[in-house]
Design goal:
mainly alpha
Length: 56
């Protein structure tokens, strides 16, 4: 995987940490990857002539 750097609010970090504490994700990285994946799949799945299978 290729590392990227992002800035998020303190509130967003607190929300991510709650997801991790609940057992939904094992790390912030996993939660952020899943959020990006879901958004990109949604975006490509709702646009005409786009392939939703671009993410593997």
């Amino acid at each position: 995987m290729i590392p990227i750097q992002v800035r998020v609010t303190k509130k967003m970090i607190e929300m991510l940490d709650k997801l991790i504490e609940s057992g939904a994700y094992s790390s912030r990285s996993e939660a952020i990857r899943d959020a990006i994946r879901q958004h990109v799949v949604y975006f490509y799945g709702n646009k005409p002539n786009r392939k939703s299978n671009m993410i593997e």
